[in-house]
Amino acid sequence: MSPTKSNTFLGVLLVLLSSCHLNKGVNEEPIFKNNPPESTVYKNKLGELIKADDDALSYFVKGYKVQYGHDLLIVTVSGPDILATAFIQINDPKGIEQLVVNRADGYVGAELEGLKLEATKGPKGTVLLYKSVEAILD
């Protein structure tokens, strides 16, 4: 590769990397390391942490699925001592209509700034319900 092409490639790569939102959470919680996100113990612990430290957490779109007739937004939850996957049930998509219509296609990696959730107990563990979001940062 010529020096000009190499420098151009490196420049483009740096721009792309700097525009990404990096989630810098560290997973210190053994429950998240040793259990799948769908497990009751995982969902319950995540619900506790979200209730206790919601303002210190960041949420990044990971995917979308429909399960048992419910729309679920899959997100990475990142914070000082947490890096986990959450399934957020969407009953009212106000503020994220396009994300739901597109089933998160084109939104993977976007940060959900000011995401508000409600954590409720369900028969298979804590259920996280979407309430609102201030902005979607791509």
Architecture overview:
This protein is 30% helix and 36% strand. The protein contains 4 helices and 7 strands; from the N terminus they run H-H-H-E-E-E-H-E-E-E-E. The strands form 2 sheets. It has a 5-stranded mixed sheet with strand order 1-2-3-6-5. The chain has a two-stranded antiparallel ribbon with strand order 4-7. The longest helix has 17 residues, at 3-19. The model is unreliable at 9-22 (pLDDT under 50).
Key attributes of the depicted protein:
alpha+beta, 5-stranded mixed β-sheet, 4 helices, 7 strands
CA-CA gap between termini: 32 Å
> What fraction strand?
35-45%
Mean pLDDT: 85
Total strand count, please? 7
Number of helices: 4
Low-pLDDT residue spans: 9-22
Protein structure class = alpha+beta
Q: How large, in whole angstroms, is the Cα Rg?
A: 17 Å
How is the main sheet built? 5 strands, mixed
- Percentage of helical residues? 25-40%
User: What pattern of helices and strands is seen along the backbone?
Assistant: HHHEEEHEEEE
What general outline do the C-alpha atoms trace? globular
| Spatial ordering of strands, largest sheet | 1-2-3-6-5
